[in-house]
Amino acid sequence: MVSRLPVFSGKRVGKRVSPEMVVPVFVVVVLCFALLVSYPWTVLTIGTLAYLASLPFGFASYRNHERKAAAGMNVAPPGMGPPLQGDSPSLSPAHPSSESQGPEHPDRPTRLN
Q: What phi and psi values does residue 109 have, to the nearest 5 degrees?
């Protein structure tokens, strides 16, 4: 789903489930599905209220991320110099036919897949 509201995304957390927690997490997920099947309206209502309660936390996390990005915008990572002209990374191998035509936008790869 697409939302214009900044909501929490687990992608930025970057932590993996430790091996000793795999079974308990799996049991909790199975239990949640069992409750959803047994009591759909109650579980959906609780899920909706939890989502609405998480919106302020998502906004705060988004604001923090934007502040960090704005503060570190002109700072290069340690050990890295400024990027050289023409050293932009490519996401896909270049094809002879695409090189002869030239990219539409120089900062975008010619092909994504």
A: -70, 155
Crossing angle between the packed helical segments 22-38 and 40-71, to the nearest 10 degrees? 130
Task: Kindly write down the DSSP assignment for every residue of 10-62, as one continuous string.
Answer: GGGT--PPPGGGHHHHHHHHHHHHHHHHHSHHHHHHHHHHHHHHHHHHHHHHH
Contact between 92 and 113 (Cβ < 8 Å): yes
CA 90 from centre of chain: 21
Query: Whole-structure pTM over 0.85, yes or no?
Result: no
Question: Tens of pLDDT along 50-101?
Answer: 989 988 888 888 888 888 888 877 555 555 555 555 555 555 555 555 444 5
**Dihedral (CA of 67, 69, 74, 80) sign:** positive
Q: What share of the chain is helix, strand, coil (3-state, %, to 5)?
A: 55, 0, 45
Which residues, in sequence order, are CB contacts of 104 under 8 Å at separation 6+?
none
Judge whether 103 and 109 are in contact, CB under 8 Å.
yes
Q: How far apart are CA 33 and CA 6, in angstroms?
A: 27
